[in-house]
UniProtKB/TrEMBL annotation:
One of its GO terms (molecular function) is flavin adenine dinucleotide binding. It comes from Pseudomonas trivialis. Keywords: FAD, Flavoprotein, Oxidoreductase. Gene3D superfamilies: D-Amino Acid Oxidase, subunit A, domain 2, FAD/NAD(P)-binding domain. NCBIfam families: PRK11259.1 (NF008425). The lineage of its organism: Bacteria, Pseudomonadati, Pseudomonadota, Gammaproteobacteria, Pseudomonadales. SUPFAM superfamilies: FAD-linked reductases, C-terminal domain, FAD/NAD(P)-binding domain. It comes from the Bacteria. This is Methyltryptophan oxidase. The keyword Iron does not apply. PANTHER family: FAD DEPENDENT OXIDOREDUCTASE DOMAIN-CONTAINING PROTEIN, PEROXISOMAL SARCOSINE OXIDASE. Coiled coil: none annotated. The keyword Oxidoreductase applies. InterPro entries: FAD-dep_OxRdtase, FAD/NAD-bd_sf, MTOX.
Length: 376
């Protein structure tokens, strides 16, 4: 979010500084692990559709400017397949995704069990009641490259980047904001705080109460010899049961990599950026294989060739927080995570830049206001 905002401000010829305690792109926050799903039909809610549309436009603009490949339209399959599936269940993620695509005229196909088996035989044991949503324009973006490109272009257009420098204090008055780091003090007219996992610790109340950090694991499983997955696997979100831990997601097996990345999400044990265990144990690798891969995905072995830990910053309703700070003037606080923010980051950076320049954004971001948590 910070890289996108700095880039958009520099592009608009605004004098801008970006400050990061690490050296982005890095592996300590929420924006690493090679790939992030993007899709126009955002089953999390209709309010996200205009945002992701803008992001898709900006990824292509960034590709043209940088010559880097950032956004791969591999096709996206959202799939629900389990014996307890109720086709009338309005909370089902696949059904919600289909509904949004129909409402917003997003190109897609609805697949039944026979079509899923025929087109995507890598999904083992597809239930007869299974339903699939296929969005040909969906796929993935490459977060580290997106960050690196936006920061590089921002610097080329005059932004100053302070890396390896930690913000320790923020104050404001009617004239602007004062940001104190462990190395300097900066004055600015406007401030956008996008501190990810660290936002609660940096900003205190009410953010420390509202934002919880959840450790997540990413796994790259080696392909079976001769597996026909390369070039034939979409980006996917696969619900195989009811409740937490019954959904996994994955990415295409890419040429030359010999592996397929797959992950799931957990919301039962929260951590802090300071205490987060950043290693994945062999027992956790085994557990992932047994619970999410074995018997569900063909062509993939139990061998993990790479793993990573990354963390979500999650709000009570799993939607973003984007709002002016309740007491700090000229300060926008943004926590567009809850596990689904990257696809929106390019467009949000553009919107946050507009807020800095003219006090409002073209995108309607009012549903992410802090007021919805009043009393919590
Ligand atoms: C495992 C995983 C899978 C995900 N999958 C998807 C997906 O498929 N699709 C999708 O759209 N989204 C996905 N997301 C969510 C998405 O990646 C996040 O929403 C997004 O990356 C959050 O970006 P951010 O800028 O808020 O946080 P970060 O990228 O973590 O940035 C916060 C930055 O603030 C810096 N910082 C913090 N405190 C200070 C301080 N005091 N001083 C200076 N700098 C500071 C940090 O160093 C860091 O660089 C996933 C997230 C995870 C963890």
């Amino acid at each position: 979010m910070g890289a996108a905002t700095v880039y958009q401000l520099a592009k608009a010829s605004v004098k801008v500084a970006g400050i990061d305690r690490h050296h982005p792109p890095h592996t300590f926050g929420s924006s690493h692990g090679d790939t992030r799903i993007t899709r126009l039909s955002v089953g999390e809610g209709a309010q996200y559709v205009p945002i992701v549309r803008n992001s898709h436009r900006i990824w292509r603009e960034l590709e043209a400017l940088s010559g880097e490949s950032l956004f791969e339209q591999s096709g996206l399959l959202v799939l629900t397949s389990h014996d307890d599936f109720d086709p009338g269940d309005e909370t089902d993620f696949t059904l919600r995704t289909i509904g949004l695509a129909q409402t917003y005229g997003i190109e897609h196909e609805v697949l039944d069990a026979a079509q899923i088996r025929q087109r995507f035989p890598q999904f083992a044991q597809v239930a007869d009641s299974a339903i699939g949503y296929y969005e040909p324009g969906g796929g993935f973006v490459q977060p580290e490259r997106c960050i690196e490109v936006q920061l590089r272009l921002a610097e080329q257009q005059g932004a100053t980047l302070y890396k390896g420098e930690t913000v320790t204090h923020i104050s404001s008055d009617e004239h602007g904001v004062t940001v104190t780091t462990d190395q300097r003090t900066l004055q600015a007219d406007k401030l956008v705080v996008s501190a990810g996992n660290w936002a609660g610790g940096l900003l205190g109340a009410p953010f420390d109460r509202l934002l919880k950090v959840y450790r997540q694991q990413l796994f790259w499983f080696e392909l079976e010899p001769g597996a026909q997955l390369v070039g034939a696997s979409p980006t996917f979100i696969f619900t195989h049961g009811l409740g937490e831990g019954q959904t996994n997601y994955g990415f295409p097996a890419l040429p030359g990599e010999g592996s397929l990345k797959i992950a799931t999400a957990q919301y039962h044990t929260s951590s802090t950026p300071e205490t987060l265990d950043r290693t994945v144990s062999p027992a956790q690798e085994r557990e992932m294989y047994e619970q999410q891969v074995q018997g569900r995905l063909c062509g993939v072995t139990a061998k993990v060739v790479k793993s990573a830990v990354c963390a979500y910053t999650v709000t009570p309703d799993h939607h973003f927080i984007i709002d002016q700070h309740p007491t700090l003037q000229h300060t926008l606080v943004v926590s567009p995570c809850s596990g689904h923010g990257f696809k929106h980051s390019a467009a949000l950076g553009e919107a946050f830049a507009q807020w800095c320049i003219r006090g409002a954004s073209e995108l309607d971001l009012s549903s992410f206001s802090l007021t919805r948590f009043e009393g919590q």
